[in-house]
From TrEMBL:
It comes from Shewanella piezotolerans (strain WP3 / JCM 13877). Residues 191-420 form the Sigma-54 factor interaction domain. NCBIfam families: PRK05022.1 (NF003451). One of its GO terms (molecular function) is DNA binding. This is Helix-turn-helix, Fis-type. The lineage of its organism: Bacteria, Pseudomonadati, Pseudomonadota, Gammaproteobacteria, Alteromonadales.
Length: 512
Protein backbone atom coordinates (compact mmCIF):
# COMPACT_ATOMS: atom_id res chain seq x y z
CA UNK A 1 0.00 0.00 0.00
CA UNK A 2 1.24 3.53 -0.73
CA UNK A 3 0.07 7.12 -0.40
CA UNK A 4 -2.21 8.11 -3.26
CA UNK A 5 -2.63 11.64 -4.60
CA UNK A 6 -6.11 11.61 -3.03
CA UNK A 7 -4.62 10.78 0.38
CA UNK A 8 -2.11 13.64 0.16
CA UNK A 9 -4.75 16.10 -1.03
CA UNK A 10 -7.06 15.15 1.85
CA UNK A 11 -4.24 15.61 4.36
CA UNK A 12 -3.35 19.02 2.91
CA UNK A 13 -6.97 20.18 3.01
CA UNK A 14 -7.43 18.94 6.57
CA UNK A 15 -4.59 20.99 8.02
CA UNK A 16 -5.17 24.11 5.94
CA UNK A 17 -8.89 24.34 6.74
CA UNK A 18 -8.71 26.64 9.76
CA UNK A 19 -5.08 26.69 10.83
CA UNK A 20 -5.45 28.43 14.17
CA UNK A 21 -8.05 25.96 15.42
CA UNK A 22 -6.79 23.07 17.56
CA UNK A 23 -9.54 20.89 16.10
CA UNK A 24 -7.90 21.18 12.68
CA UNK A 25 -4.66 19.77 14.08
CA UNK A 26 -6.62 16.92 15.65
CA UNK A 27 -8.30 16.21 12.34
CA UNK A 28 -4.92 16.13 10.60
CA UNK A 29 -3.68 13.48 13.04
CA UNK A 30 -6.85 11.46 12.58
CA UNK A 31 -6.37 11.58 8.79
CA UNK A 32 -2.70 10.59 9.04
CA UNK A 33 -3.60 7.73 11.36
CA UNK A 34 -6.22 6.40 8.97
CA UNK A 35 -4.02 6.88 5.89
CA UNK A 36 -0.88 5.28 7.32
CA UNK A 37 -2.85 2.78 9.39
CA UNK A 38 -0.81 3.70 12.47
CA UNK A 39 -1.89 3.00 16.03
CA UNK A 40 -0.72 6.30 17.50
CA UNK A 41 0.33 9.68 16.13
CA UNK A 42 1.31 13.10 17.47
CA UNK A 43 1.82 16.55 15.97
CA UNK A 44 4.48 18.42 17.96
CA UNK A 45 5.69 22.02 17.91
CA UNK A 46 9.40 22.64 18.52
CA UNK A 47 10.20 25.55 20.82
CA UNK A 48 12.93 26.22 23.37
CA UNK A 49 14.69 22.86 22.95
CA UNK A 50 11.52 20.91 23.65
CA UNK A 51 8.56 19.45 21.76
CA UNK A 52 5.07 20.60 22.77
CA UNK A 53 2.13 18.43 21.56
CA UNK A 54 -0.40 20.31 19.43
CA UNK A 55 -2.56 17.26 18.73
CA UNK A 56 -2.49 13.56 19.58
CA UNK A 57 -4.32 10.46 18.41
CA UNK A 58 -4.15 7.02 20.00
CA UNK A 59 -2.26 8.34 23.05
CA UNK A 60 -3.32 8.97 26.64
CA UNK A 61 -5.17 12.33 26.76
CA UNK A 62 -2.78 13.83 29.31
CA UNK A 63 0.06 13.64 26.73
CA UNK A 64 -1.34 16.84 25.23
CA UNK A 65 -0.25 18.72 28.35
CA UNK A 66 3.25 17.20 28.57
CA UNK A 67 6.42 18.94 27.43
CA UNK A 68 9.18 16.73 26.02
CA UNK A 69 12.67 18.14 26.62
CA UNK A 70 15.07 16.92 23.92
CA UNK A 71 17.90 16.01 26.27
CA UNK A 72 15.60 13.58 28.12
CA UNK A 73 14.09 11.84 25.07
CA UNK A 74 16.68 10.31 22.69
CA UNK A 75 14.18 9.43 19.95
CA UNK A 76 12.81 12.95 19.77
CA UNK A 77 16.35 14.33 19.84
CA UNK A 78 17.24 12.06 16.90
CA UNK A 79 14.24 13.38 14.95
CA UNK A 80 15.17 16.99 15.77
CA UNK A 81 18.75 16.56 14.56
CA UNK A 82 18.13 14.38 11.50
CA UNK A 83 16.82 16.91 8.99
CA UNK A 84 15.02 14.03 7.23
CA UNK A 85 12.56 11.27 8.06
CA UNK A 86 13.76 8.82 10.72
CA UNK A 87 12.78 5.14 10.67
CA UNK A 88 13.65 3.61 14.02
CA UNK A 89 14.49 -0.12 14.03
CA UNK A 90 11.63 -2.16 15.49
CA UNK A 91 13.98 -3.40 18.22
CA UNK A 92 15.65 -0.03 18.84
CA UNK A 93 17.10 0.30 22.32
CA UNK A 94 16.26 4.00 22.45
CA UNK A 95 13.41 4.52 24.95
CA UNK A 96 10.16 5.64 23.38
CA UNK A 97 8.76 8.92 24.83
CA UNK A 98 5.29 7.36 24.74
CA UNK A 99 6.16 4.26 26.80
CA UNK A 100 3.18 3.61 29.05
CA UNK A 101 1.19 6.39 27.38
CA UNK A 102 -0.56 4.29 24.71
CA UNK A 103 -3.74 2.80 26.24
CA UNK A 104 -3.83 -0.99 26.75
CA UNK A 105 -0.19 -1.49 25.69
CA UNK A 106 1.43 -1.87 29.12
CA UNK A 107 4.49 -0.05 30.39
CA UNK A 108 6.87 -0.52 27.45
CA UNK A 109 6.58 -0.59 23.65
CA UNK A 110 9.29 -3.22 23.25
CA UNK A 111 9.04 -4.09 19.55
CA UNK A 112 7.11 -1.75 17.29
CA UNK A 113 7.31 0.39 14.17
CA UNK A 114 8.17 4.02 14.77
CA UNK A 115 8.78 6.88 12.33
CA UNK A 116 9.60 10.52 12.98
CA UNK A 117 8.91 13.26 10.43
CA UNK A 118 10.76 16.50 11.21
CA UNK A 119 8.88 19.62 10.10
CA UNK A 120 11.15 22.31 8.66
CA UNK A 121 10.48 25.90 7.55
CA UNK A 122 13.27 27.87 5.84
CA UNK A 123 15.74 25.29 7.11
CA UNK A 124 14.66 25.66 10.75
CA UNK A 125 12.97 22.96 12.80
CA UNK A 126 9.46 24.04 13.79
CA UNK A 127 7.91 20.71 14.75
CA UNK A 128 7.56 17.00 14.10
CA UNK A 129 5.03 14.27 13.42
CA UNK A 130 5.55 10.94 15.17
CA UNK A 131 3.76 7.76 14.08
CA UNK A 132 3.80 4.42 15.88
CA UNK A 133 2.49 0.97 14.93
CA UNK A 134 2.36 -2.24 16.95
CA UNK A 135 3.30 -4.34 13.90
CA UNK A 136 7.09 -4.03 13.28
CA UNK A 137 6.51 -4.06 9.48
CA UNK A 138 3.55 -1.71 9.64
CA UNK A 139 5.04 1.13 7.57
CA UNK A 140 7.25 -0.83 5.17
CA UNK A 141 4.86 -0.23 2.27
CA UNK A 142 5.37 3.54 2.42
CA UNK A 143 8.43 4.88 0.63
CA UNK A 144 10.71 7.55 2.04
CA UNK A 145 9.68 9.96 -0.71
CA UNK A 146 6.00 9.53 0.13
CA UNK A 147 6.70 10.26 3.77
CA UNK A 148 8.84 13.27 2.81
CA UNK A 149 5.90 14.63 0.82
CA UNK A 150 3.64 14.18 3.83
CA UNK A 151 6.23 15.87 6.03
CA UNK A 152 6.52 18.82 3.62
CA UNK A 153 2.74 19.35 3.53
CA UNK A 154 2.49 19.29 7.32
CA UNK A 155 5.54 21.57 7.73
CA UNK A 156 4.25 24.22 5.32
CA UNK A 157 0.84 24.20 6.91
CA UNK A 158 2.17 24.34 10.48
CA UNK A 159 4.45 27.22 9.50
CA UNK A 160 1.46 29.11 8.07
CA UNK A 161 -0.59 28.39 11.19
CA UNK A 162 2.10 29.78 13.49
CA UNK A 163 2.53 32.86 11.29
CA UNK A 164 -1.23 33.52 11.23
CA UNK A 165 -1.36 33.22 15.02
CA UNK A 166 1.51 35.70 15.36
CA UNK A 167 -0.08 38.18 12.95
CA UNK A 168 -3.45 37.96 14.72
CA UNK A 169 -1.82 38.81 18.04
CA UNK A 170 0.06 41.73 16.47
CA UNK A 171 -3.18 42.98 14.90
CA UNK A 172 -4.95 42.95 18.26
CA UNK A 173 -2.08 44.82 19.89
CA UNK A 174 -1.76 47.38 17.09
CA UNK A 175 -5.36 48.45 17.69
CA UNK A 176 -4.26 49.68 21.10
CA UNK A 177 -0.78 51.10 20.45
CA UNK A 178 1.21 52.11 17.39
CA UNK A 179 4.69 51.42 18.76
CA UNK A 180 6.42 48.13 18.04
CA UNK A 181 5.81 45.54 20.72
CA UNK A 182 8.98 44.04 22.15
CA UNK A 183 8.61 40.46 23.28
CA UNK A 184 10.84 39.07 25.98
CA UNK A 185 12.02 35.71 24.67
CA UNK A 186 13.86 34.71 27.85
CA UNK A 187 11.90 32.03 29.70
CA UNK A 188 8.55 32.83 28.04
CA UNK A 189 5.43 32.22 30.08
CA UNK A 190 3.24 29.37 28.88
CA UNK A 191 -0.38 29.25 29.95
CA UNK A 192 -1.66 25.68 29.65
CA UNK A 193 -5.27 25.36 28.55
CA UNK A 194 -7.57 25.23 25.53
CA UNK A 195 -10.94 25.74 27.23
CA UNK A 196 -13.31 28.53 26.20
CA UNK A 197 -12.59 30.36 29.45
CA UNK A 198 -8.82 30.20 28.93
CA UNK A 199 -9.02 31.30 25.30
CA UNK A 200 -11.07 34.32 26.40
CA UNK A 201 -8.45 35.12 29.06
CA UNK A 202 -5.60 34.89 26.53
CA UNK A 203 -7.47 37.26 24.20
CA UNK A 204 -7.84 39.79 27.03
CA UNK A 205 -4.12 39.58 27.77
CA UNK A 206 -3.24 40.25 24.13
CA UNK A 207 -5.52 43.30 24.13
CA UNK A 208 -4.22 44.96 27.30
CA UNK A 209 -0.55 43.91 27.28
CA UNK A 210 0.64 46.44 24.71
CA UNK A 211 -0.99 49.36 26.52
CA UNK A 212 0.24 51.06 29.68
CA UNK A 213 -3.07 50.66 31.49
CA UNK A 214 -3.04 49.52 35.10
CA UNK A 215 -4.44 46.00 35.42
CA UNK A 216 -6.28 44.45 38.35
CA UNK A 217 -6.17 40.65 38.27
CA UNK A 218 -9.03 39.01 40.16
CA UNK A 219 -9.54 35.35 40.96
CA UNK A 220 -9.62 32.65 43.59
CA UNK A 221 -6.53 31.41 45.38
CA UNK A 222 -4.35 29.20 43.22
CA UNK A 223 -5.76 30.17 39.80
CA UNK A 224 -2.43 31.47 38.47
CA UNK A 225 -2.71 35.25 38.90
CA UNK A 226 1.07 35.66 39.12
CA UNK A 227 1.45 33.79 35.82
CA UNK A 228 -1.07 36.17 34.24
CA UNK A 229 0.95 39.15 35.49
CA UNK A 230 4.16 37.69 34.04
CA UNK A 231 2.44 37.10 30.71
CA UNK A 232 1.16 40.70 30.53
CA UNK A 233 4.66 42.02 31.22
CA UNK A 234 6.35 39.76 28.67
CA UNK A 235 3.88 40.82 25.98
CA UNK A 236 4.23 44.52 26.79
CA UNK A 237 6.51 47.32 25.55
CA UNK A 238 8.25 47.09 28.94
CA UNK A 239 9.30 43.45 28.47
CA UNK A 240 13.01 44.34 28.34
CA UNK A 241 12.76 46.17 31.66
CA UNK A 242 12.25 44.77 35.15
CA UNK A 243 9.15 43.04 36.48
CA UNK A 244 9.33 43.70 40.23
CA UNK A 245 7.26 41.57 42.61
CA UNK A 246 5.88 42.56 46.02
CA UNK A 247 3.57 40.43 48.18
CA UNK A 248 1.50 42.93 50.14
CA UNK A 249 0.18 40.22 52.49
CA UNK A 250 3.71 39.39 53.67
CA UNK A 251 4.61 43.04 54.23
CA UNK A 252 4.90 44.16 57.89
CA UNK A 253 3.32 47.61 58.24
CA UNK A 254 6.42 48.93 60.00
CA UNK A 255 8.58 48.46 56.92
CA UNK A 256 5.94 48.63 54.19
CA UNK A 257 6.59 52.26 53.23
CA UNK A 258 10.33 51.64 53.00
CA UNK A 259 9.77 48.54 50.85
CA UNK A 260 7.62 50.47 48.40
CA UNK A 261 9.35 53.85 48.28
CA UNK A 262 12.82 53.27 49.75
CA UNK A 263 14.58 55.25 52.48
CA UNK A 264 17.64 57.42 53.05
CA UNK A 265 20.40 56.78 55.51
CA UNK A 266 19.38 57.65 59.08
CA UNK A 267 15.65 57.83 58.29
CA UNK A 268 14.94 55.45 61.19
CA UNK A 269 16.77 53.13 63.53
CA UNK A 270 18.53 50.52 61.42
CA UNK A 271 18.61 52.63 58.24
CA UNK A 272 22.40 52.48 57.89
CA UNK A 273 22.44 53.22 54.16
CA UNK A 274 20.32 54.53 51.31
CA UNK A 275 17.90 52.00 49.87
CA UNK A 276 15.83 51.94 46.69
CA UNK A 277 12.21 50.87 47.01
CA UNK A 278 10.19 48.66 44.70
CA UNK A 279 8.92 51.63 42.68
CA UNK A 280 12.42 52.88 41.94
CA UNK A 281 13.58 49.38 40.97
CA UNK A 282 10.61 49.06 38.61
CA UNK A 283 11.20 52.43 36.91
CA UNK A 284 10.33 52.10 33.18
CA UNK A 285 9.15 48.56 33.94
CA UNK A 286 6.29 46.86 35.76
CA UNK A 287 5.47 46.57 39.46
CA UNK A 288 3.34 43.56 40.41
CA UNK A 289 1.52 44.13 43.71
CA UNK A 290 0.23 40.72 44.76
CA UNK A 291 -2.51 40.46 47.42
CA UNK A 292 -3.19 44.20 47.07
CA UNK A 293 -6.28 43.83 49.25
CA UNK A 294 -4.00 43.34 52.27
CA UNK A 295 -2.26 46.73 51.92
CA UNK A 296 -2.74 48.91 55.05
CA UNK A 297 -5.06 51.91 54.62
CA UNK A 298 -2.35 54.42 55.53
CA UNK A 299 -0.09 53.11 52.80
CA UNK A 300 -2.94 53.08 50.29
CA UNK A 301 -3.06 56.91 50.37
CA UNK A 302 0.67 57.16 49.63
CA UNK A 303 0.41 54.61 46.85
CA UNK A 304 -2.45 56.62 45.33
CA UNK A 305 -0.25 59.73 45.16
CA UNK A 306 2.41 57.89 43.16
CA UNK A 307 -0.22 56.58 40.76
CA UNK A 308 -1.72 60.06 40.34
CA UNK A 309 1.43 62.16 39.94
CA UNK A 310 4.21 59.70 39.14
CA UNK A 311 6.50 60.95 41.93
CA UNK A 312 7.46 59.55 45.30
CA UNK A 313 9.41 60.48 48.40
CA UNK A 314 11.78 58.13 50.12
CA UNK A 315 11.31 57.73 53.86
CA UNK A 316 13.35 60.44 55.57
CA UNK A 317 13.78 62.55 52.44
CA UNK A 318 12.06 65.79 51.39
CA UNK A 319 12.96 65.39 47.73
CA UNK A 320 10.59 64.02 45.09
CA UNK A 321 11.66 61.33 42.67
CA UNK A 322 9.91 60.86 39.31
CA UNK A 323 9.15 57.29 38.24
CA UNK A 324 7.45 55.70 35.24
CA UNK A 325 5.93 52.44 36.46
CA UNK A 326 3.08 50.29 35.20
CA UNK A 327 1.06 48.71 38.01
CA UNK A 328 -0.37 45.21 37.86
CA UNK A 329 -2.22 44.30 41.04
CA UNK A 330 -3.84 41.04 42.08
CA UNK A 331 -6.20 39.91 44.79
CA UNK A 332 -8.54 37.06 45.70
CA UNK A 333 -10.77 39.48 47.62
CA UNK A 334 -13.87 41.27 46.36
CA UNK A 335 -12.43 44.80 46.41
CA UNK A 336 -15.84 46.38 45.82
CA UNK A 337 -17.02 44.85 49.08
CA UNK A 338 -13.78 45.91 50.76
CA UNK A 339 -14.47 49.50 49.65
CA UNK A 340 -18.00 49.35 51.05
CA UNK A 341 -16.65 47.97 54.31
CA UNK A 342 -14.14 50.83 54.55
CA UNK A 343 -11.09 48.60 54.32
CA UNK A 344 -9.99 49.76 50.89
CA UNK A 345 -9.94 53.26 49.38
CA UNK A 346 -12.45 53.78 46.59
CA UNK A 347 -10.17 56.20 44.71
CA UNK A 348 -7.28 53.70 44.78
CA UNK A 349 -9.60 50.90 43.63
CA UNK A 350 -10.63 52.92 40.57
CA UNK A 351 -6.98 53.77 39.80
CA UNK A 352 -5.98 50.11 39.91
CA UNK A 353 -8.95 48.59 38.11
CA UNK A 354 -8.64 50.47 34.84
CA UNK A 355 -8.61 47.06 33.13
CA UNK A 356 -9.87 44.29 35.43
CA UNK A 357 -9.16 40.68 34.43
CA UNK A 358 -10.96 37.72 35.99
CA UNK A 359 -8.92 34.50 36.03
CA UNK A 360 -11.35 31.56 35.81
CA UNK A 361 -11.31 28.86 38.50
CA UNK A 362 -10.22 25.39 37.45
CA UNK A 363 -13.73 23.94 37.79
CA UNK A 364 -14.90 26.25 34.97
CA UNK A 365 -12.09 25.27 32.58
CA UNK A 366 -13.66 22.29 30.84
CA UNK A 367 -11.00 19.91 29.55
CA UNK A 368 -8.01 21.79 30.96
CA UNK A 369 -7.60 19.51 33.99
CA UNK A 370 -6.39 16.70 31.74
CA UNK A 371 -3.84 18.98 30.00
CA UNK A 372 -2.59 20.44 33.28
CA UNK A 373 -2.34 16.95 34.78
CA UNK A 374 -0.11 15.84 31.93
CA UNK A 375 2.02 18.97 32.30
CA UNK A 376 2.52 18.50 36.05
CA UNK A 377 3.07 14.74 35.82
CA UNK A 378 5.85 15.28 33.26
CA UNK A 379 7.37 17.95 35.51
CA UNK A 380 7.23 15.54 38.47
CA UNK A 381 8.88 12.84 36.38
CA UNK A 382 11.74 15.22 35.63
CA UNK A 383 12.15 16.38 39.24
CA UNK A 384 12.06 12.84 40.62
CA UNK A 385 14.33 11.60 37.77
CA UNK A 386 11.94 8.78 36.87
CA UNK A 387 12.11 6.91 33.59
CA UNK A 388 8.34 6.82 33.20
CA UNK A 389 5.42 8.31 35.13
CA UNK A 390 1.81 8.11 33.99
CA UNK A 391 -1.82 8.41 35.08
CA UNK A 392 -4.32 5.61 34.65
CA UNK A 393 -7.79 6.30 33.25
CA UNK A 394 -9.49 6.09 36.67
CA UNK A 395 -7.09 8.69 38.03
CA UNK A 396 -7.90 11.06 35.17
CA UNK A 397 -11.63 10.54 35.75
CA UNK A 398 -11.12 11.23 39.46
CA UNK A 399 -9.15 14.42 38.77
CA UNK A 400 -11.78 15.65 36.31
CA UNK A 401 -14.62 14.97 38.75
CA UNK A 402 -13.13 16.94 41.67
CA UNK A 403 -14.06 20.60 42.28
CA UNK A 404 -10.51 21.86 43.09
CA UNK A 405 -11.16 24.57 45.69
CA UNK A 406 -7.41 25.29 45.66
CA UNK A 407 -7.37 25.38 41.84
CA UNK A 408 -4.15 24.86 39.86
CA UNK A 409 -1.89 25.12 42.89
CA UNK A 410 -3.84 22.34 44.61
CA UNK A 411 -3.75 20.19 41.47
CA UNK A 412 0.04 20.56 41.22
CA UNK A 413 0.57 19.65 44.89
CA UNK A 414 -1.82 16.68 44.71
CA UNK A 415 -0.04 15.24 41.68
CA UNK A 416 3.42 15.78 43.17
CA UNK A 417 2.40 13.96 46.35
CA UNK A 418 0.80 11.16 44.30
CA UNK A 419 3.99 10.82 42.24
CA UNK A 420 6.10 10.49 45.38
CA UNK A 421 3.74 7.83 46.77
CA UNK A 422 3.75 5.95 43.46
CA UNK A 423 7.53 5.90 43.45
CA UNK A 424 7.65 4.63 47.03
CA UNK A 425 5.16 1.82 46.37
CA UNK A 426 6.39 0.61 42.96
CA UNK A 427 8.84 -2.22 42.43
CA UNK A 428 9.62 -1.41 38.78
CA UNK A 429 11.11 1.57 36.94
CA UNK A 430 7.73 2.45 35.41
CA UNK A 431 5.48 4.33 37.79
CA UNK A 432 1.70 4.56 37.63
CA UNK A 433 -0.37 7.11 39.55
CA UNK A 434 -3.56 5.37 40.69
CA UNK A 435 -6.61 6.64 42.62
CA UNK A 436 -5.27 5.35 45.96
CA UNK A 437 -2.36 7.80 45.66
CA UNK A 438 -4.70 10.79 46.02
CA UNK A 439 -5.68 12.23 49.39
CA UNK A 440 -9.11 13.64 48.45
CA UNK A 441 -10.96 10.42 47.60
CA UNK A 442 -13.49 10.90 50.41
CA UNK A 443 -14.57 14.19 48.78
CA UNK A 444 -14.70 12.78 45.24
CA UNK A 445 -17.37 10.58 43.66
CA UNK A 446 -16.80 7.06 44.94
CA UNK A 447 -18.09 5.54 41.72
CA UNK A 448 -15.11 7.11 39.97
CA UNK A 449 -12.65 5.91 42.59
CA UNK A 450 -13.99 2.34 42.45
CA UNK A 451 -14.36 1.03 38.93
CA UNK A 452 -17.73 -0.66 38.44
CA UNK A 453 -17.45 -4.44 38.20
CA UNK A 454 -20.36 -4.96 35.84
CA UNK A 455 -23.16 -2.90 34.43
CA UNK A 456 -24.20 0.56 35.59
CA UNK A 457 -24.33 1.13 39.30
CA UNK A 458 -26.37 3.50 41.42
CA UNK A 459 -24.81 6.93 41.74
CA UNK A 460 -24.10 8.42 45.18
CA UNK A 461 -26.48 11.18 46.19
CA UNK A 462 -23.73 13.49 47.45
CA UNK A 463 -22.38 14.38 43.97
CA UNK A 464 -22.76 17.63 42.10
CA UNK A 465 -24.67 17.41 38.82
CA UNK A 466 -21.42 17.75 36.87
CA UNK A 467 -19.81 14.90 38.81
CA UNK A 468 -22.84 12.65 38.48
CA UNK A 469 -23.07 13.31 34.73
CA UNK A 470 -19.37 12.51 34.20
CA UNK A 471 -19.70 9.36 36.30
CA UNK A 472 -22.73 8.09 34.37
CA UNK A 473 -21.16 8.89 30.99
CA UNK A 474 -17.97 7.06 31.95
CA UNK A 475 -19.84 3.97 33.22
CA UNK A 476 -22.27 3.77 30.31
CA UNK A 477 -19.73 4.33 27.53
CA UNK A 478 -17.44 1.67 29.02
CA UNK A 479 -20.39 -0.74 29.29
CA UNK A 480 -21.43 -0.23 25.64
CA UNK A 481 -17.77 -0.40 24.54
CA UNK A 482 -17.41 -3.76 26.28
CA UNK A 483 -20.59 -5.03 24.64
CA UNK A 484 -19.07 -4.09 21.25
CA UNK A 485 -15.75 -5.86 21.95
CA UNK A 486 -13.83 -2.58 22.26
CA UNK A 487 -14.89 -1.33 18.81
CA UNK A 488 -15.25 2.46 19.06
CA UNK A 489 -17.03 2.87 15.70
CA UNK A 490 -19.68 0.31 16.69
CA UNK A 491 -19.99 1.96 20.10
CA UNK A 492 -20.61 5.35 18.47
CA UNK A 493 -23.35 3.83 16.30
CA UNK A 494 -24.96 2.18 19.33
CA UNK A 495 -24.95 5.48 21.20
CA UNK A 496 -26.17 7.42 18.13
CA UNK A 497 -23.14 9.70 18.37
CA UNK A 498 -20.76 11.04 15.77
CA UNK A 499 -17.54 9.01 16.02
CA UNK A 500 -15.36 12.11 16.42
CA UNK A 501 -17.59 13.51 19.16
CA UNK A 502 -17.46 10.18 21.04
CA UNK A 503 -13.65 10.13 20.89
CA UNK A 504 -13.47 13.71 22.20
CA UNK A 505 -15.95 12.95 25.00
CA UNK A 506 -14.04 9.80 25.98
CA UNK A 507 -10.80 11.79 26.13
CA UNK A 508 -12.37 14.54 28.22
CA UNK A 509 -13.75 12.19 30.87
CA UNK A 510 -10.54 10.18 30.93
CA UNK A 511 -11.53 6.77 29.53
CA UNK A 512 -9.60 7.06 26.27
Amino acid sequence: MSLSQTDLTRIALDITAGLSDHDRFSRLLDTIRQTLHCDAAALLQFTGQQFNPLAIDGLSPDVLGRRFILSEHPRLEAIARAGDIVRFPADSELPDPYDGLIPHQGDHLVVHACIGLPLLANGDLIGAVTIDGFDPQQFNAFSDNELRTLSAIAAASLSNALMIDKLEKQAVQSQEVTTVTRINTDAPVEMIGQSTAMNALKNELNVVASTDLNVLILGETGTGKELVAQSIHQLSNRAKQALVYLNCAALPESVAESELFGHVKGAFTGAISHRSGKFEKADNGTLFLDEIGELPLGLQAKLLRVLQYGDLQKVGSDKSLKVDVRIIAATNKDLKQEVLAGRFRADLYHRLSVFPIMVPPLRERDGDITLLSGFFVERCRQKLTLKSLRLDSQSLALLNGYDWPGNIRELEHVLHRAAVLSRAQSTSDSYLIAPQHFDFQAEAPQSIVSKPKSGAKALPSNQTLKQATATFQSQYIQQVLTENQGNWAATARALALDSGNLHRLAKRIGIK
